[in-house]
Amino acid sequence: MATKIFVNLPVKNLNRSVEFFTKLGYRFNPQFTDEKATCMIVGEDIFVMLLVEPYFKSFTKKDIPDTSKSSEVIIALSSDSKEQVDELVNKAIAAGATTPNAKQDQGFMYSWGFQDLDGHLWETMYMDPSAIQ
C-alpha cells in the first residue's frame, strides 16, 4: 500500500472553505466530512483535512498561528504545465484568494502561489522533465 499524506489545516468557516476549494476543482470525501471537518481530495494519495479551529485545537496543545502575521507551512503541489499553474492560481484569485508573491520563471521551473481564505500558503509549480534528467 502506498503511503498517503493527510495535511491538517485549521479553518475558521468550514462551509466557506469547502466552497472556495470546490471552485478550484477539488472534491471532498463524504465519509470523512461532518460539521467539524472535511477531507479534501488533492490526489490519489494526497488529502487535506480542513478542520474548524476548535476541533483542530483538540489535536494539539500549541496555539494556531495567526496567518496574517506568520506562516505555519507552505503547501507545494506539482502541475503538468505552466498553463496549469496559472489556471489554478487564477481560479483561486477569482474565488477570493490573494497572491503573496509574483510568478517565478526560472526556465526549468515555473511557480506561482496563492493565500487561501484562512491565510494558508499554497504554491504550485511546473518542472520541465528534461531539466530533471
UniProtKB/TrEMBL annotation:
The segment(s) forming the Glyoxalase/Bleomycin resistance-like N-terminal domain are 5-43
What name has this protein been given in UniProt? VOC family protein
The taxonomic lineage of its organism, from the top, reads:
Bacteria, Pseudomonadati, Bacteroidota, Cytophagia, Cytophagales
Q: Which SUPFAM superfamilies match?
A: Glyoxalase/Bleomycin resistance protein/Dihydroxybiphenyl dioxygenase
Q: Which organism is it from?
A: Rhodocytophaga rosea
Q: Which residues constitute the signal peptide according to the record? A: none
The domain of life is Bacteria
